[in-house]
Every structure is written in C-alpha cells, then in structure tokens.
C-alpha cells in the first residue's frame, strides 16, 4: 500500500511503501567546477590533454608498426609487440580517462527521478525525446565546449587506424598453403627450444618414454626463408603411450612406432597451440576454448568447439635411431573455418 508522507530533504512529498519511507534525493552539492569558472577551465584543459595524449598513442602505434618491423628474430618481434601494446594502451586508456574526467567535472551531476511510463511512438513522445537530447547536449556542454568536442571527435576518428594495420597483416586466405609445411620424407624431429633454434636437437626413439610428450619442430627450420611462419604451420606434439592402447585405423598402421605418435600442434578450431597433454587420460587440451582430442583415437574431438581431428604426422626411425617424418601431413593444418582449396599435386 502506498501513501504520501511529509516533505523530503530535496523538496516534494515522500512515498511510503509497505512501511518503508523513500528518503528522497539528497541535497545537491555543487562541485568547484560548477561555481568557479577558472576551475572549470582547468578541468577542460585537463580533458583536452587526455584526448591529445590519446591521439599521440594512436600515432605511436602506427609509427611503431613500421619503425620496429620484424627482421626475422624473436627479439625484434617481441619489441614490436611491446611498442604496439604501449601505443594501444595510451590511445584507448587516455580517451577513456578523458571521457570519465569530463563526466566527473564538467557534465551536470544533479540527480533526478522520472516516473515510468509506457513506451509509444507518438509525435508527442518523439518531441519529448528530442527535448531530452537537446537538454543532454546543453548539460554536457558539448555545444559550449568546441575544443573538447573537436578533440574527442578527432581522437575517436583516428582510433580505428591501428586496426587497419593489424587486419592488413592477416593477409589473403591461405588456399593450399596449409598443405605445405617443412615436413617431408627423412626430415628429423627436433626438440623445440622456443623461437628459432640456433642448433638442431634431434630426438631418438629411445628418448621418448611412455607418458612423455615433446614439442617438436622440423630439422633445419632456421634455414628456411621465413622460419617463424614455417614453424607456426609445422609445430608438432610427440607422445608415447602403450601400443595396445592405440586404436589404429586401416591405412595408418605404419604411421606410429611402438606407441610413439605425432600430431599437429595447431588446434582445428581457431589455430591456438594445443599444448596440454594429460598422460593418464591420453587427452590433448587446447587452452583457448577447451577443445579436447583423444590421442588413442587419432586425436578425434571428444569435447569443445573443434570440428575435426588434429592432423597426424606419419613418422619412422632412420638408421641411426632418430625419429623422422615419412611425409608431410596428409591433410591441412589449422582452423577448419579457413577456405582450403584442393591440394596441389606437387605438395
């Protein structure tokens, strides 16, 4: 039950609902920027400074993209990523701080209450909505403060430019490029130390014990024209389980040796590195979206958004006991959603 009570602190009557009295709005206390034009001017300059800093951050992002272009080394790539991150953080953070500071110091902060009403599309309601927008324009000062308005528009206008550079690096659709990796007959499987290795560390069959897992790259990766991109396609996980636990499909009987199997490390969902191996369950887990693959069943998907198994790399042992590839992958690596054309006959 609702009844009207005595006058509230902010004027008007108070409602009593189920025994609880609405205290009304607190008395509005003006800020220093509301009563001191000089303080408002200082706040306006501070907001303008943040918007200018945002534009500087955007420009720094663009400059860093070209100034710190990768030269093939991992250190250079990390430096560029760091500089791009600094630029993006300054650009986005500064424009956000500027907007917050504008709202906190210059936009009217008086509290109001409005009765709820049914939503309709009449001409009268449209006129009211337009009046509200005009009132908001006046209260925000966006019409009276052209400096802040124009700097905000400029900062927001150039903010998407870094995205143009980043999207440009995505390049064209891969076509049949994902059928071609550095793996071919006789290429040794080497341990991946991270980045581009200075020397090869080939793996012997005797080095792979039951329950172990190795991050693997092709031999002589550093000698390729683009080692980082080639590694991104050819990265492999090598594991060993008991041979009797493998459910080998017809045609793949000689793709593994004594329970040692090798699969692409690139998740078939969106290309994240599948790097987590549960040796007790023989499951491979992608940490990005939790796609889970069963090593005992040719890495078929048992959970998550991935739609196809991880491609298997056929392996063998050479005369010196080192693990080698029998061929390249027999299917494309990488995400399923990429448009992948028919494999060329010379792949």
Automatic annotation (TrEMBL):
Q: Which organism is it from?
A: Brevibacterium rongguiense
List all membrane-crossing ranges: 47-69, 81-103, 147-167
Record Pfam families? QcrA_N, Rieske
| Localization annotation | Cell membrane
What name does UniProt use for this protein? Cytochrome bc1 complex Rieske iron-sulfur subunit
Q: What does this protein do?
A: Iron-sulfur subunit of the cytochrome bc1 complex, an essential component of the respiratory electron transport chain required for ATP synthesis. The bc1 complex catalyzes the oxidation of menaquinol and the reduction of cytochrome c in the respiratory chain. The bc1 complex operates through a Q-cycle mechanism that couples electron transfer to generation of the proton gradient that drives ATP synthesis.
User: Main site of residence?
Assistant: membrane
- Which InterPro entries does the record cross-reference, listed alphabetically? QcrA_N, Rieske_2Fe-2S, Rieske_2Fe-2S_sf, Rieske_Fe-S_prot
SUPFAM superfamilies (UniProt xref):
ISP domain
- Membrane topology summary: Multi-pass membrane protein
Rieske domain residues are: 233-324
């Amino acid at each position: 039950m609702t009844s009207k009570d005595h006058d509230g602190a902010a004027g008007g009557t108070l409602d009593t609902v189920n025994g609880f009295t609405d205290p009304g709005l607190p008395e509005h206390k003006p800020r220093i920027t509301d009563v001191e034009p000089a303080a408002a001017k200082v706040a306006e300059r501070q907001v303008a400074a943040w918007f200018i800093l945002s534009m500087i951050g955007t420009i720094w992002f663009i400059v860093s993209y070209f100034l710190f272009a990768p030269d093939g080394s991992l250190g250079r790539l990390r430096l560029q990523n760091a500089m791009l991150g600094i630029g993006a953080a300054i650009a986005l953070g500064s424009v956000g701080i500027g907007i917050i500071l504008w709202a906190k110091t210059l936009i009217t902060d008086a509290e109001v209450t409005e009765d709820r009403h049914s939503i309709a599309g009449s001409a009268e309601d449209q006129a009211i909505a337009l009046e509200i927008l005009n009132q908001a324009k006046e209260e925000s000062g966006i019409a009276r403060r052209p400096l802040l308005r124009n700097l905000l528009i400029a900062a927001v206008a150039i903010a998407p430019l870094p995205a143009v550079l980043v999207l440009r690096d995505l390049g064209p659709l891969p076509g049949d490029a994902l059928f071609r990796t550095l793996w071919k007959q006789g290429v040794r499987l080497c341990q991946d130390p991270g980045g581009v290795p200075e020397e090869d560390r080939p793996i012997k069959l005797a080095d792979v014990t039951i329950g172990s897992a190795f991050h693997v790259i092709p031999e002589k990766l550093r000698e390729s024209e683009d080692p980082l991109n080639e590694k991104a396609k050819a990265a492999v996980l090598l594991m060993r389980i008991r041979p009797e636990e493998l459910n080998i499909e017809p045609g793949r009987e000689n793709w593994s040796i004594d329970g040692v199997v090798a699969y692409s490390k690139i998740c078939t969902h969106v290309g994240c590195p599948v790097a987590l191996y549960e040796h007790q369950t023989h499951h491979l887990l992608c940490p990005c979206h939790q796609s889970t693959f069963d090593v005992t069943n040719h890495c078929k998907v048992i959970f998550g958004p991935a739609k196809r198994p991880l491609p298997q790399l056929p392996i063998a042992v050479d005369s010196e006991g080192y693990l080698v590839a029998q061929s390249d992958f027999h299917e494309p690596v990488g995400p399923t959603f990429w448009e992948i054309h028919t494999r060329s006959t010379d792949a």
